[in-house]
Amino acid sequence: MPTQFENLQPHEFYKLIDGYEAREKENDFKRAYFTSWLIAPHLKEPVTVQQIMKPLHESKEDQLKKAAEDRNILLKEFGLREPERK
Questions:
Q1: Domain boundaries, given as residue ranges, for the chain
Q2: pLDDT-above-90 percentage for the chain
Q3: In the 3-class helix/strand/coil scheme, how is 33-54 assigned residue by residue?
């Protein structure tokens, strides 16, 4: 398979990554569903699947927001100015 990666166009490679992430998210959802049922009898208030899934998969907007915050922290920490954009 590694030799096949050399023949891929960038957009094809990104689609492979997106497909992998979608499969992983689906598998994580299944695991979270069964985990919530397994631990529900031991808790006063049951944990929902969404509560388990939230830390596992952030939305794209949350990822971009976090990246911008991290960038601002780095710029402030190292005393750098952000270049002016036109």
A1: 2-56
A2: 51
A3: HHHHHHHHHHCCCCCCHHHHHC
